[in-house]
Design the sequence.
């Protein structure tokens, strides 16, 4: 039951597969917000990553090895980045050992205090006018690389790196050798469902996973719901309740006879902010992030400010794209924290 609870904490739905750093059979990435070293299941693709780690560890053989490779982005002081890399590695190591205490002797730790190779990889993929100069600074400079990059093109280069490169570098890579990592599926007794805008109907594409869930479900299941921020508070609450009841009905149809406990977690503004940060083609991205990050704005003011951008086009884009992954329900043996 302890393992089940641990897995439920990290099994929330991944908002944006497009922001992943390249999950593969050998390497699974866990992302970290700036200055943070605790695993956050709601951040970017972490839910899927942690689920896949559990699936891999479940089939872990005695001959296998796990390498926990931890990285920090180059912004900030070197001493602090070195500390963050070590704390992130320790956090992931602790997560692995909670899944299976016997793993302790099979884990190797590698830390990269500042991921300059990651910066170079990003630069090689861009078409920025200052690209060659930045690469030369990183490869050839014997001085303060950060100071030189911060001055490059009157700060434009550093600002771009801060927004579009550094967030993807704050990560831990879990590399499992000689272990068969299966594609992401509904593991054990938890799953997730994404609903269409304004709809409470459970999409048929989830029925197969829900049937599997019922086969291994405990006597009590918990359904945690979030709503996308369009609509009224009352309307979103009512819609979430209908989604939960319909989801429970489907579980009953597939043979679940246990108790179902339901919790509504409100509108997912934090999830929307994360989704916008991952966007690569939003013209008003900076303005949207500024509005969503402004703690002085109440819900209605924030919404009106977003709706006013680009004569309403930005809000329509948000509803159609970034909010599409927020209309979700998560089913687990415990409420998702």
Sequence:
């Amino acid at each position: 039951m302890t393992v089940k609870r641990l897995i439920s904490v990290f099994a929330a739905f991944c908002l944006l597969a497009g922001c992943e750093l390249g999950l593969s059979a050998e390497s699974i990435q866990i992302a970290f917000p700036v200055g943070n070293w605790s695993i956050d299941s709601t951040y970017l693709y972490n839910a899927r990553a942690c689920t896949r780690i559990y699936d891999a560890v479940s089939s872990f053989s005695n001959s296998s090895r796990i390498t926990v490779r931890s990285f920090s982005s180059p912004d900030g002081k070197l001493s602090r980045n070195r500390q963050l890399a070590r704390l992130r590695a320790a956090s992931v190591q602790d997560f692995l050992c909670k899944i299976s205490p016997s793993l302790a002797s099979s884990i190797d730790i590698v830390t990269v205090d500042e991921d300059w190779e990651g910066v170079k990889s990003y630069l090689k993929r861009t078409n920025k006018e200052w690209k060659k100069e930045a690469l030369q600074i990183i490869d050839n400079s014997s001085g303060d690389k950060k100071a030189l990059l911060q001055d490059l093109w009157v700060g434009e280069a550093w600002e771009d790196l801060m927004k579009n490169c550094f967030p993807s570098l704050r990560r831990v890579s879990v590399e499992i050798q000689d272990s068969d990592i299966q594609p992401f599926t509904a593991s054990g007794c938890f799953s997730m469902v994404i609903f269409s805008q304004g709809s409470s109907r459970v999409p048929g594409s989830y029925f197969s996973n829900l049937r599997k869930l019922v086969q291994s479900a405990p006597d009590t299941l918990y359904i945690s719901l979030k709503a996308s921020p369009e609509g009224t508070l009352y309307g979103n609450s009512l819609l979430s309740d209908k989604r939960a009841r319909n989801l429970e009905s489907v579980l009953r149809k597939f043979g679940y006879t246990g108790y179902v406990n339901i919790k509504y977690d409100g509108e997912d503004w934090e999830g929307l902010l994360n989704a916008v940060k991952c966007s690569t083609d939003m013209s008003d991205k900076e303005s949207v992030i500024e509005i969503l990050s402004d703690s002085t704005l109440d819900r209605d003011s924030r919404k009106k400010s977003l709706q006013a951008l680009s004569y309403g086009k930005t809000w329509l884009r948000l509803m159609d794209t970034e909010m599409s992954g927020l209309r979700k329900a998560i089913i687990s043996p415990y409420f998702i924290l």
